[in-house]
Amino acid sequence: xxxxxxxxxxxxxxxxxxxxxxxxxxxxxxxxxxxxxxxxxxxxxxxxxxxxxxxxxxxxxxxxxxxxxxxxxxxxxxxxxxxxxxxxxxxxxxxxxxxxxxxxxxxxxxxxxx
Amino acid sequence: xxxxxxxxxxxxxxxxxxxxxxxxxxxxxxxxxxxxxxxxxxxxxxxxxxxxxxxxxxxxxxxxxxxxxxxxxxxxxxxxxxxxxxxxxxxxxxxxxxxxxxxxxxxxxxxxxx
Lengths: 114, 114
Hints:
The complex is a heterodimer. By secondary structure, chain A is mostly beta strands.
């Protein structure tokens, strides 16, 4: 079974630009969640989508948004990039039908904002 | 998400058994205990999940005492490639009451020496 795929693997953007990251979940998984990981803040929850609907949202500004398509693939968008947005962005998929479903993570997109 | 406490770091040698203990005094009745492993610049990888007593899979065992206030991840005969950060999570990471909080904590950095 193919794992969670995130593209691109690396990205360099300039402050003020916007970026779109993509995530393809494991086949059959309907929940996709996104996380930001930085050395200082650890792994922070951004949001979660289930069946194309945002089900949970973390404490991030509105510049961070996402969506999920009918095939469960998800995209995350960050607008008006700031230097502090430099991080490893991870997505995870799970069956999501009930609580405590283990998360299966992709290897992330390393975003550098200059 | 129940608060968890793990050792910040542990050292071991190849071939030894490693036990990492996680304390979670305020675990809720419906909470499962899940362990993840993370290598640098990769997403966390699901290792094992349990609710009570003992769970074993091909890579690890998870021991949970009757009061469920702690759990121990056991890695049999570690190798150099087991050097990673190990995270203990209790409860449902997608529970919206946890929005805005760091979901993985600092984890335990395990260093396996030759």
